[in-house]
What we know:
96 residues; mainly alpha; 2 helices
Amino acid sequence: xxxxxxxxxxxxxxxxxxxxxxxxxxxxxxxxxxxxxxxxxxxxxxxxxxxxxxxxxxxxxxxxxxxxxxxxxxxxxxxxxxxxxxxxxxxxxxxx
Length: 96
């Protein structure tokens, strides 16, 4: 079974691949923004807070840092998946 690829199919694949590449770039930008937020959060100096409220605040910040680290990992996985999809979309005649 042979597959015939027409010029319009190739152009459509290139266009789709370009859109997917832009999506991957936007996701990567999100990764950088979340990493930046996590870095700013980690720079807060709260070690001297000894009150119950201070400890509760430290616990909350620690939880948020953990969530941000997991978010970065999830976004990085999404970037890789979108990039892989973009490479597949660039190949005419390949089912997505």
